[in-house]
Fold these 4 entries.
Entry 1:
Amino acid sequence: MATKLQHAVWTKLSEIPKGKVVTYVELARAIGKPKAVRAVATAVGKNPNLVVVPCHRVIRSDRSVGKYASGVDKKIALLKSEGINIQKRHVPPEDIFVFDKK
DNA sequence: GCTCTGACGATTT
DNA sequence: GAAATCGCCAGAG
């Protein structure tokens, strides 16, 4: 099952271009709930559609990779494969994607 | 309807 | 710089 919040999150995630990552804050802001970062994180973690939902492109606002269901190390490897020079503790700000805010 | 928990954030110690 | 604390929203029991 999927709540509307989760759907909103996944939809936004699918809009992230390859080679870019997004922070939970930006993602939360994109769905109109900038304070609901925790709810957003929960939604991402429960993502049932790994194909259209690149959850590995989601990082924390402090540029740390955060967590990953299949292992943080895997997440980092995937992002590096997309051209992102990511590290466990920090991610290059220039590779962080920002949603078009209104 | 209340309480606990969570892939978090920001601030303080 | 790392750990602890408080605050935040939504979902699950």
Note: DSSP finds four helices and two strands in chain A.
Entry 2:
Amino acid sequence: MYYDNNFKDCIDCINNENSVFFGLSNDEKKILSQNYTCSKYKKNEVIYKEGDKPMGLICLSKGKVKIFKEGIGGREQIVRMAKPVGFIGYRALFANENYISSAISIEESEVCVLDKASLLKVIKNNGDFALKLINLLAKELGFSNKRTVTLTQKHIRGRLAESLLFLIDTYGYEEDNKTIKVYLSRGDLANLSNMTTSNAIRTLSSFASEKVIALNGKKIIIKDLKMLQRINRLG
Amino acid sequence: MYYDNNFKDCIDCINNENSVFFGLSNDEKKILSQNYTCSKYKKNEVIYKEGDKPMGLICLSKGKVKIFKEGIGGREQIVRMAKPVGFIGYRALFANENYISSAISIEESEVCVLDKASLLKVIKNNGDFALKLINLLAKELGFSNKRTVTLTQKHIRGRLAESLLFLIDTYGYEEDNKTIKVYLSRGDLANLSNMTTSNAIRTLSSFASEKVIALNGKKIIIKDLKMLQRINRLG
DNA sequence: TGCTATTTGTGTTTTAAAACACCAAAAGTA
DNA sequence: TACTTTTGGTGTTTTAAAACACAAATAGCA
């Protein structure tokens, strides 16, 4: 990781129309944009880890990041996948706690960190913005509650199907409109779906032999979305 | 369930020092207290159910409530337990979604419902209050993420131990300082811990024969808290 | 009060998924 | 380039927990 305050993608975090900051006044944007630092991460670099103290609001302007918790025997559970423009580490920041999860880039990524004090100032003075954050957290909590139930109750095939659908939903497709636009290792796919690596590999092969997907290295091509949704629903 | 706007416990939701509303100005409290309805529920009555549209912020002024999601084959997972003074159903309200979980009283309870519009008005005009809610949601999200990992990774004994510690943490002890102050059925204890009823019964008996707890009907008496915490950590 | 329904409790069987063991392929790296 | 490490892949064994089955006790109810 190295610091670099000069690449302009960081501005995106504040001005991008998909950002929660979209709609802030110029004064407010100025407060935020005067207090940030930027950095780049290569693939598989740690952005923060469990136990660290949040230094600000981290915005992902480029790349992809996995957020996971370590459980029994170091086994990791991916709780979220971040894409640009999006925020990471805001839960701990707003809870005034240290991180309870870790964030690692799964491809080359760029982030900027917005100073906490400036952010709090803007929140306090802008009720609509505060409501947006409340809305964001509430949705995230709903997602987490749903995951708890599916990860504990669905069978392996259902869990993997759900993960694939989640990845499509988060990152979309390549230009061919059928290849999922993210390359996870079998191990990460397993960590996302609460299963062992061998079971992820095995179940992926099953899906492939059933012509639900096709595999090409780390690329996953969706051949039968309806069927995948069906497997997701029925378990 | 029946309506009754005259019992004074409802005022508690706004004035109680443990409430997020504590610290609001009199004007703000007035706005909120002018727009609420109260109701009483007997044991095992539905307060809201999955799919319902939230009508306002529900405050529990008396009693105990379980919040759960239905999963595969109707199997329920308890995601939260509410105590007075506390709020229920706020996630869906703030996410502008229908409920994704259901709430059922596990003993006689009293709730009041604060009008959504009035609440939003107060949030928009009081940044500190908004931050309190952001903090509340962020903590709840942390709890949910932790649960996801422990429910999927811990073994039965560890999961049950964690649930018992969670119940102690939430409801505390009776006057004897060792009986958990909530009476859940074995089925509910199972739904809280992601296991079948028979396994909850079996594991409780194991704990009892190991002198970690003692059982007296639905009463659970903690005999060896250190050991219970140990089982929770290692199990 | 007796009758039904639910909850509690225990033994047995089945099964889904982990654990283990091993090899092949690919990707780093010296 | 060869060498090491990581990732992908597959068969076999083991095991934790569900599923099933059936009493006993308790609670709800007419």
Note: Chain B has a mean pLDDT of 93.
Entry 3:
Amino acid sequence: MDHDLLVTLKALSDASRLRIVGLLAARPAAVEELAENLALAPGTVVHHLKRLSAAGLVESRPRRPYVEYALKVDRLHQVGRMLDQMERGSEQEAHLPGPSGEPLPAFEAKVLRSFFEGGRLVSIPAHEKKRLVVLEYLRDRCFSEDQVYAEKQVNECLALYHADVASLRRYMVDAGLMTRNAGKYRRPTLSVPMPG
Amino acid sequence: MDHDLLVTLKALSDASRLRIVGLLAARPAAVEELAENLALAPGTVVHHLKRLSAAGLVESRPRRPYVEYALKVDRLHQVGRMLDQMERGSEQEAHLPGPSGEPLPAFEAKVLRSFFEGGRLVSIPAHEKKRLVVLEYLRDRCFSEDQVYAEKQVNECLALYHADVASLRRYMVDAGLMTRNAGKYRRPTLSVPMPG
DNA sequence: GCGGTGATTTGACAGTCATCAAATCAGGAA
DNA sequence: TTCCTGATTTGATGACTGTCAAATCACCGC
């Protein structure tokens, strides 16, 4: 979620891409059309469109013999709203809501309240049971299922909550909350820790 | 205006700076405080704060013995609104409104209508009188007085309207609409072209 | 099947920039 | 004045990325 915002802002923070968004705001267009308007090579335009697409700002559809790229205005509005609410973000995080607002079990709520302050993790719990609560909470806030994360991305989101991202990463992997394969991280498909 | 949006988006499109914004959203803070939370060197934090400041997102105030940096929420909201309205941007430009909405003299209005299409300059007028109308219009939309622009910035804004930015730049300078000094561009302070 | 057109991918290059360590500055206290 | 603390500047380095030209792909009509 937070990570997506970053991706989207990065996508919008380039002159050429902003111009593309401006052009697509008027009407959908093909790659070559954009390339001509922007005085850029088609390959470059494709590169930009891919970034905008990864940010959910643009969608493509075959329109033989062209490919029609169109702006997804909803996403733009979403980003606008996110920025508007960013100032509230930290206050809300101070409430430490559960994944979908439902109340947390008492123990977990207590642990989270005592280890978080102003939306940030003040220290990593030494007791394994408490640590697990914190780690699981962070994992849910940072990573979605069925997505692969580079170590850099993992660090980026964890850093939102605590400076020592290396420890958090290691603990998560050790606890089986995240799996690491060839430098890539992901949530385990079905992690029911079975003893024996 | 458009240029400021780019600067601001660039400022927001970095993980560290987003985290800074998040921290400052909770409460104002000093450089070292931020540096510790982010696990970054103080110098690096200052660098980021300078960028955020240039984007108008942050302001600083001496708070001996510290320097207090605070978020300017208004600016954040402004950006959010700009993104919301970006989709309307091109439509509005299609109307080619004057600098502050007042009606343009008939001749200028006619020239602009015939040389612009969908908010873009379709070709540079060959006739000097018409060209001047177009150039002046573009200058007003791109550059404010009392500000110095690098050539790159000049190109960025002009490119929003026409691919051949080099010609536009040259014509503007030749016509005295912009002055160039040591690679830097600016609007002439008082440009009353006096013959002789 | 074969060309042709438009889209995409690839490899290389250049410019930008985040980051750090270390040097420097600024102002209060001793 | 001379320290001390915190902020800022500087220079260097490494990573990222926007850009292009050229190669490749995908699909259509012949």
Note: Chain A touches chain B through 46 residues (CB under 8 Å).
Entry 4:
Amino acid sequence: MGRPPCCVKVGIKKGPWTPEEDITLVSYIQEHGPGNWRSVPTNTGLLRCSKSCRLRWTNYLRPGIKRGNFTPHEEGMIVHLQALLGNKWAAIASYLPQRTDNDIKNYWNTHLKKKLRKFQSALEPSPMAATDEILSDSFNVGRKSLDFGEVTDTGGGSGNVKLNQSCSSSSYASSTENISRLLQGWMRSSPKINGDSIGSSSSAAANCDLISHGDDQLESILSFGNTNNNVTMLMEKSSSKGTLQDSGNGEKLNPERKQKAGHQKNPNININDNDNDNDNPPLSFLEKWLLDESAAGQVEDMNQMMELSSIF
DNA sequence: AAGTCTCGCAACCGCACATAC
DNA sequence: TGTATGTGCGGTTGCGAGACT
């Protein structure tokens, strides 16, 4: 017996959300909090299915969502994490609390994947390599940093880069941003809504406690791209608290799915709060590695980049 | 100026997983 | 134990805007 649809399709509205629908949804969530999505359409009168309401909230209306340009540092983190975790967008998004998995997924598919592919073909020109493409592209292997968008070296040897992208929010996006902004105060004053907590430095890394690993750990991570996405190697070295378990046979890796009690999105957040109530818990090795400007912000080492991009 | 093409993003779809009964 | 239900996730699609011819 197949799983029934999440909602009766008849009379369900599809397509883009209107500002009025957004306001209705936000007002309801302000009053009742996120969750119990099944009841949202009936209680609000929205002609949307529950999944659509949840998606609209988590991907667009949820407070704290950052839209627009991805910074070079964010790009670097995404590249690293994608090489490390594969297409586990929710897990990757847990490291970028202001970005949604959908945003990251879209950005990867439309920008980063393309650029990494070009980068790889520039480094490993095959007989069939599209030479014209390489020549015409602004990508330059000899440059100090990857050309993610229009990256300009600010000089001074600092390694800082400026990113000039032409991303722009639509006027409608602006209106929903305003809706989100209206919610900021509510989020601050209301009891913690675990699934939507943002800005915490604790994240999925809390699940894979990699603190206190040495250079060999880094070596494992860096060579990850050549291991057919088998996380076992990495996790073998982690402590017993590690909950990322990938048998290398496609078994679900995402720690969120192991922590769905209470129907919380991103349960990784605050997952170790019982151990340490400090608002700024020590960064795990992985987090330190990811947040390290020299590693994630500019990707200086071309050989390292080769390994990361070898998954393509 | 008009038609066509390309690209980016919001939203949808189907499946997987957890839980309640 | 099996079924129903709720939710999360990743892949894909379709539309609109801008670029191009």
Note: Residues 1, 3-4, 6, 15-16, 35-38, 50-51, 54, 58, 87-90, 101-102, 105, 109, 170, 252, 254, 256-257, 260, 263, 265 of chain A lie near DNA strand C (CB under 10 Å from a C1').
